[in-house]
């Protein structure tokens, strides 16, 4: 019997120092989008340059996470549901994802080097079979059965269980 149904999340942080070319493109385009979208939430009487200041001043600026995230859509589509930065214990370097969420950590209208975003990628629903020697032993099979094809992901920074549904029938 399985222990639980889970969903894993993997988060990447992108800023001006990111070395991956893909990150650089996402960083550049999300900054441009932020600059364009920022105008509709900023006050002419009391303008704010940093995102966190703007958010404190105008609660509707929370929409900027979503609006700026649209600029990353085409780059996310290029990944075709596989994030090639998370390896399993065999060295296969892909993490399947079905959804993602972009958030603005901070940015500034006058200093683009401050622009920093996070993208969290969410796995499909998985079966958590066990945790073995600091590894998540999971299966894509979600049926209640006695055998599964499994994969093991090392417990590592930026990888977390973000959804957990306990199986009440574990002996």
Task: Describe the protein in words.
Helix content is 22%, strand content 32%. It contains 4 helices and 9 strands; from the N terminus they run βααααββββββββ. It has helices at residues 21-38, 51-57, 64-69, 73-78; strands spanning 4-14, 82-83, 95-96, 99-106, 116-122, 126-132, 135-139, 150-154, 159-166. The strands form 2 sheets. Strands 1, 4, 5, 6, 7, 8 and 9 form a 7-stranded antiparallel sheet that branches. It has a two-stranded antiparallel ribbon with strand order 2-3. A hairpin with a 2-residue loop joins β6 and β7. The chain is elongated. The mean pLDDT is 92.
List the helices and strands and how they pair.
Blueprint: E1 4-14, H1 21-38, H2 51-57, H3 64-69, H4 73-78, E2 82-83, E3 95-96, E4 99-106, E5 116-122, E6 126-132, E7 135-139, E8 150-154, E9 159-166
Antiparallel strand pairs: 1-5, 1-6, 1-9, 2-3, 4-5, 6-7, 7-8
Write a short abstract of this structure.
The chain has 171 residues and is an alpha+beta fold. It contains 4 helices and 9 strands.
What attributes characterize this protein structure?
alpha+beta; two-stranded antiparallel sheet; 9 strands; single chain; seven-stranded antiparallel β-sheet; 171 residues; 32% strand
